[in-house]
Amino acid sequence: MKFFVDSADLEEIGELADTGLIDGVTTNPSLIAKSGRDFIDVIKEICTIIDGPVSAEVTALEAGDMLKEAEKLLGISKNVTIKVPLTWDGLKACKTLTDNGSMVNVTLCFNANQALLAAKAGATFISPFIGRLDDMGLDGMELIEEIRTIYDNYDFETQILAASIRNINHVKTCALIGADVATVPGSVIKQLAKHPLTDKGLEGFLKDWKTTGQSIL
Ligand code: G3P
Predict the structure, then answer these.
(1) What is the Å distance from ligand 1's center to 55 Cα?
(2) What is the residue with the minimal CA distance to atom 4 of ligand 1?
(3) 57 touches ligand 1 (CB under 6 Å)
(4) What is the model's pTM?
(5) Which residue in the list 83, 95, 120, 172 is annotated as catalytic?
(6) Which listed CATH number (3.20.20.30, 3.30.2350.10, 3.20.20.70, 3.40.718.10) goes with 2-212?
(7) Cβ neighbours, 10 Å, residue 197
(8) Is 172 helix (H, G, I), strand (E, B) or coil?
(9) Nearest residue (CA) to ligand 1, atom 7
C-alpha cells in the first residue's frame, strides 16, 4: 500500500519525505487555507520535495472552468494530480483530463456507485472519505470493501485512495482490505511506528548492553 501525506504543511511533508516512505501528497482547499499560504506556491514547493503524485484541487464547479484551472495547475509540475469533486461536472472534467493523459483524483466519494462512475470516467484515484462516514455513525471501511470488490470484478485500474483517515486502525484495515493508497495526516503516520512494548524492549536491551561494557564502533 502506498502512503500519501494528507497535508499542505511543507515542514511536515519534508520531515516525512526524508524517511523515504512517502509516495505522494494530497491537499485540499481546507488544508491550503490552514497553511495560510499561496496555493500555487505551496503546490510548487511540495513538488520539489515529492516525486510522486501531488493532488491539487480545483475550486470551480462547472467542467469547463475546472479544466481551465486544471491547465494552470498542471503547468506547475509533471507530478501534479488534478483533484476534482465527485459531481457530474467533476466526472466530465475527469474524463477529459484522463483522456489527455493527466492524473486525476476524484474526491468526496461517499458511496460505491460514485466510485463506479469515477472508474468509468478513467480516474487515476478515487478518494472515499472514511472518517466523515464514521462521524455520521456509518462504517467507512464498508465502503472501501465495496469499492475493492467492484473494481476487482471489472478490473478497473482506478486506484483506491483511502482518505479522511483519522487513526492507525483505519490504516491497518485499509491495508487488510487492499486499498491501493492511504492518504494519512502526518500525526497518524508518525504513530504507525509506535508500540509501548517496542520502547520497553529497547530500554531493556540497552540496559543489558551497558553491563557488557562493549561498543560496536
Ligand atoms: O484530503 C481529504 C481528506 O483526507 C479529508 O480528511 O479528516 O478532513 O475528513 P478529513
Answers:
(1) 13
(2) 164
(3) no
(4) 0.96
(5) 83
(6) 3.20.20.70
(7) 7
(8) helix
(9) 164
Active site (annotated) includes residue 83: yes
Tens place of pLDDT for every residue, the chain, 217 residues?
999 999 999 999 999 999 999 999 999 999 999 999 999 999 999 999 999 999 999 999 999 999 999 999 999 999 999 999 999 999 999 999 999 999 999 999 999 999 999 999 999 999 999 999 999 999 999 999 999 999 999 999 999 999 999 999 999 999 999 999 999 999 999 999 999 999 999 999 999 999 999 999 9
Please give the angle made by the CA atoms of 13, 119 and 117, to the nearest 5 degrees. 115
Q: Indicate if ligand 1 lies below 6 Å from the C-beta of 125.
A: no
Residues 157 and 160: their CA atoms lie apart, in Å, by 9
Indicate if ligand 1 lies below 6 Å from the C-beta of 129: yes
Strands (DSSP E) contained in the chain are 2-6, 24-26, 54-57, 80-85, 104-109, 125-128, 159-162, 181-184
The DSSP H or E segment spanning 11 is: helix 10-17
Cell 557488557 belongs to residue: 212
Q: How far is CA 181 from CA 72, 90, 144, 146, in A?
A: 26, 21, 11, 16
